[in-house]
Amino acid sequence: MNLSNQGDHRPARPWTIYAIHHSHTDIGYTERQERIEQYHVDFIRQAVGIAEAAHRGERPEWSSFRWTCETFWAVEKFLEAASPKEKEAFQQAVIRGDIELSGTYLNMTELPDFDLLKRNHGKAQQYAKSFGHRIDSAMTADINGYGWGYADSLLQNNIEHLFSCIHTHHGMYPLGRKQTPFWWESPEGGKLLVWNGEHYMFGNELGFCPDALGKYIIKDEFQHNLMEPEHRHNNIASLRINRYLWNLEQESYPYSFVPIMVSGLGTDNASPNADIAEWMTKWNEQNGDRITIKMATLSEFFAALKQEDLSELPVHRGDWPDWWTDGVASTAMHTQIYRDAQRTLRKVKRLDPASETVSPAEIDDAAQALTMYAEHTWGYHSSVYEPWHPQVQMLEVRKQAYAAEASKLTYRALDKALVARQGALLAPHRTLRYEVINTEPATATLQVSIPLDGWENVILKRKFELIDESNGQSLPYQLTHTGALAAELTLTPGESRTLSIHPLETAKVGSPSGNMVTARNTEPIACEGIADIRLEPLVPYPVIVGESFIESDSFRIEWEINAGITAWIDKTRSTDLLDDARRHGPFTPVYEVTPAQDEHSPSQICATRARMGRNRKGTHVQRDAGRLTRVNVLDNGPLFALIELVFEVKGLSYYALHIKLFANQPRAEVSVRFHKDSVWLPENVYVALPFSMGPEAELYVEKAGCHIRPWKDQIPGSCIDYTSVQEGIFWHSAQDREALAVSMTDTPLVQLGTLEHTPRQLHTMQSADSRPYTYAWILTNYWETNFKATLGGFYEFRYAVERHHEIDPLQAKEALHASTGQFTIHRIK
Length: 829
Prior knowledge:
26% strand, 38 strands, 24% helix, six-stranded antiparallel beta sheet, alpha+beta
């Protein structure tokens, strides 16, 4: 390992490198999911074998070996398969410090809610406690950020340190530099010590692992293979290590040590490798007086860090949006199913808090399916290059099956919980009684559809009353154009009401009594039975629908052909709720496609995506906004009016908005229905949400365990282009204590930065007076490796716009949960 000819690229002071050996867990990127599981179980067996051989003195050259279990999921799978002897050996290796448990369960997107985060982060700690051990550190790899509640979830599980391995492909590290620590203050005020680190295989590029020499982050003069002859490998390693440490000194790096992650093979999902320990021993024999490389665990590294004076470390409070959470929009339908299942699981927990009906095991099975879908791997590595490949399609179906499994398990649990509440299953002569329950944390006024079986719809053609059994009063209702029965209720948190349908007439077979009449004198129905003349009702409906507007006591929504929706007026304040600086009207579709040089070449289609960087589109992106072509009135009655706005837009063969305006509440529910063409090129689809309550109001996004103001409550240098939300967004005026909420039931991504291809800004780069844009980013397939290659298909995504008075931000967040959670209604005995 010749250190000669280093010139000025030799560090000036002695150094210690802490090499943290792990296997990056990507479930499905390099192999079938169950094969990946099998690999990781065996990796732990291999690590235990190496550690035991070193501990017994059989292989003294391995005595420095350390292995960090990047995810507890791998440990969990090992424990399921291991013999009692293997389990004991593993525990002893953990106690000795040869093997370390990370407090991370898997590398996740931002899909999980706070309940799921806490469940997952508690698993490793609970296992460690079972044999008298404690975990103090967690690591992640290949994800570039976390919702702010992630910090609270770790701290509540007694995890004190987080090591983040940043991957700058389509992403970026915060704070303007890697390899730096900071205190991350959580929403509840706790402090997590974070190391903002390098790429998770950077040690391979520095040459720590024989036969696994990488070149990805480092850009130098060497052209090489993974498996180089020993002398060439060592010379490259020597040059790179010295240059790297020299460069840290030039950047005024304050410590005499640095942590570097290393993999046992030149791939994700790689095995442990004792050759690393042997190589480091030889290195230290020759160079240890100047540069010592030590295999270490996370805990050992953080213990060394804490020997330094950390009193001057910066404290950052706020969100750390993940650059890589956007894969969820490449399988948007399954993400929609996931989000519904996650809400359903919360309902089950609130309906059965003591687990009297639904067992903890059933809850855990559902949570596990949710976890596996929300894990950060979004398909096989060649999904875009060869989307027809059997491996691509197999892994895609299996990934999406996690969402389906979560849906099945959560609804099965919900069915059990409702039957325990006197739910009525299918049987003759069932009573027409229904329980409506608010399982959410806020009082809400919402409409429910009364469930009737198909053969029972004849009941709605006769006269009847809908009775609220809590007071015996008749409840207003509305029959929809689809034949459903809708009612509106206001329920406090946890409150339930029983409704019943009381027929007022009973028709007899062969008798003209009941609803059987010879003719009606006020209906515009021709002798052919066709009703194609619209007459105004004898009693005017409370929602007025005109040629270019729809209006309730609360809102007036106006539109123009081609332009779309042009005004959304809050009548209580006589103000337009649309942003003056908007580029597109509310719920207008915006379609983007980036052409490739050769649209029939897989390599060109991939290369076009790879060149996008953090723009998520090319410099020559083609953008088209929807044009309103026609408006139809579908329903109008005492509770609501429903209109359809049909748009034309490139890339979509059909796009329509169904806007349901409540008569008695400042609320509108919007259903976005469309058919997306199948296109192999990189695409994005957005839905404009250009709402505002004026310059004094703050924009908030609701996230797992917290609510934050994007572009304000963020770590410096973090992503401001988009973020992932749980239930939606809202604008809040502290002066008036009012809020405007947009519920996002099905789609979690909110685009905040400009849609234009431009140098991207990071938090604190934006001007003080700049404001975020607000679009729902509903579909994307821009990633060049493992996103779903085509977005084609039918979709329906739901939103709601609602005004709130006398409300603070926490209450507005809870109101979003009530809005998306909706009331639970079921038939009872």
